[in-house]
# Entry
Amino acid sequence: AQTVTQSQPEMSVQEAETVTLSCTYDTSESDYYLFWYKQPPSRQMILVIRQEAYKQQNATENRFSVNFQKAAKSFSLKISDSQLGDAAMYFCAYRSAGTDKLIFGTGTRLQVFP
Amino acid sequence: NAGVTQTPKFRVLKTGQSMTLLCAQDMNHEYMYWYRQDPGMGLRLIHYSVGEGTTAKGEVPDGYNVSRLKKQNFLLGLESAAPSQTSVYFCASSKDRGKAEAFFGQGTRLTVV
# Structure
C-alpha cells in the first residue's frame, strides 16, 4: 500500500524568506502523480502545485516550486518570498495511476511571521 | 457555480445512531472521494468511486458504507455511529485521472456523543 509521510508537523518562516516543506512517499508503482494542497483556516482545500512522476523537470507555480527526487521518493515544496497569506496547513498527496486512489500525508502547519 | 456541496455542515449524533452524509457535485466529475480529517492524522481516505455505480475501499473504510447511484452524488453512511467517528468529513471530486485537480467540499463536522 502507498503511504505519504510529512515529518514536520509545524514550520515557521519570516515574511519574504524561503521555506521548504518535506514530503516522502512509499510506493511500488512507477507511474503516479504528486500534489501539494493548502488548507487555510477557512478549511477550503486549494491545489498549490502538481507533478507527474514521469516528468523529470520540477514543477513551478510562481513562488512555489518542488524538488522531486523519484529515486529517493521525495517531493518537497519550496515557498519563496513568503507572504502572510501563505500561513496554512499544507498537505502532500499521492495519486495512483493504476487505482486512482488519492491519499494524503498528515500535513505541515506553516506559520509566517512579519 | 456550486462546485462540491456537502450536507449537512454540522451534526451531533448519539452513539448507535445512523446517518448519511451527502456529497453533490455539479461539474460532471467521474471521480469522487470521502475523507476524514483528525488532528495530527491528516486526511484519511475512507472510500472512493471512479464512476457511477462503482465504489472502492480506502485506508479507513470500517464502520462506513457508500453509494454512487447517480454520477453527481456520493453518499457516506454511518450505520451505528461510535465516538471514534467524531471528525471533520470532506468530500472531493475530480474530472479525470492522473494529474487532475481534486475539488473539495466545505466539510461536515460530526460529533458522536
